[in-house]
UniProtKB/TrEMBL annotation:
Signal peptide (UniProt feature, chain positions): none
Molecular function, one GO term: oxidoreductase activity
Name of this chain's protein: Radical SAM/SPASM domain-containing protein
Keyword Acyltransferase: no
SMART domains named among the record's database cross-references: Elp3
Domain Radical SAM core as annotated: residue spans: 15-240
Source taxon at top rank: Bacteria
Record flagged with keyword Iron-sulfur: yes
UniProt keywords, alphabetically: Iron, Iron-sulfur, Metal-binding, S-adenosyl-L-methionine
Amino acid sequence: MAARCRSVTGMRGIAAVPSYVVMQPTTLCNLDCAYCYLPHRAADRRMPVPVAEAVAAAVTPWAARGRFSVVWHGGEPLAAGREHLAALIAAFPAGVEHHVQTNATLIDDAWCAFFAAHGVRVSVSVDGPAARNGDRVTRAGRPAYDRIVRGVAALRRHGLPFSALAVVSRPTPGLATELYDYFLDLGCDVLGLNIEETEGVNTRSNAHDAAAVTAFWAELVAAWRRAPRVHLREVEWSLRYAAAVLAGAEGDLLPRQLDPIPTIGYDGSVTVLSPELAGFTDARYGDFSSGNVLATPLAEILAGAAGTGWVGEFLTGVEACRSSCPYFGFCGGGHAANRYFEQGRFDGTETEHCRNSKIRLLEGVLEHARDHESPAD
Ligand code: SF4
């Protein structure tokens, strides 16, 4: 299935207009998860309102053309407090969709009322049942699970729909089924599963046995097919790709250009393509930022982003993927931060991350299809 990638036309250069922006209302997180990539999560550096106003000035014409999202990320975005988050949100025009990615530990009735009042869509980070959350701990090192499920219970009590995002540190037999059943019960309507990444200040290895990772994804598809009541992000991507291949349209599936996905740091600095690079510096690449919205309009920063040293190197890597990797039509060339943190540069190709989350994902879906092929086919 995964072939003919030279004919894939998308992902050439960086688009001038993003489909969403990521905002860091505070660097602080009230948890201290073992696999977290964030370098400054113990410090409470809050985004001043003028930063949000500067971003909103760029977003207003983009949002007028169609759907546009602002994703409040962290740190833990709720650690900024309701009053401050409300002041930041107020900078944006009506019609912009707001999302928060949260560890849920601070969610209570008052936060639920806030989400409802501001139309904020919630995504909760939780790794499955209590025993699977050993890495999610408070600053005092105590398990955070009970506080996470209290927050989720508040969302359910208020009838607020939510997504869930889980980190899988070690794919083992039986885990995919256990996780899928857990999230069915939890009541999320969308689920994303991330195999843990070696990224930022998390230096734990993400190299796994290939067959184990493929089997994990195949088992997940089987669990989902038994009760497909949750939108399962990775499986839906794979099925969309498979359908495009069968229709002979796999060359057209990827966007024409890379979405710049600007991450706006608390101080207004803009890092494109990979939120995980924000806050880091490197002797060769500097601080990875393409500018600051307090000094330069965001649209202008994005128009010049391809000229940022490391971004040009990454685009060379995307072309190397296009010419060498049979999975390019599905993947689109990988994630900048994974290349940097695994390989120390941006123009390489295959990473452990893309093996775990793209190559073996697609192989797992195919393995499931082969295992369930009817003998008559
Ligand atoms: S990042 Fe990995 S899977 Fe994606 S196109 Fe490049 S080599 Fe292929």
